[in-house]
Amino acid sequence: MRYLQYDTLMRMGMGHFDSWAATFGETVTAIELSPEGTGYRAKTRFARFFNLPELISIFKEAADIQTSDMLNLPVPEA
């Protein structure tokens, strides 16, 4: 989003990832097995997104969404 919508994000006060993440996502930290298998580590991930109508609206300003109907793609018979 930042690459294509820098001005929009700045106008909305989301010029940095942290402000965008605080507006649209929730993170959780969980303990998981390390890749080496020798111990554990804390890993933080996005748990869920919220304010989805606003996020989708911003995304659609830059996205070129095409459905198979719009593209007249051949569909195999079942």
TrEMBL record:
This is SNF2 family protein. The lineage of its organism: unclassified sequences, metagenomes, organismal metagenomes.
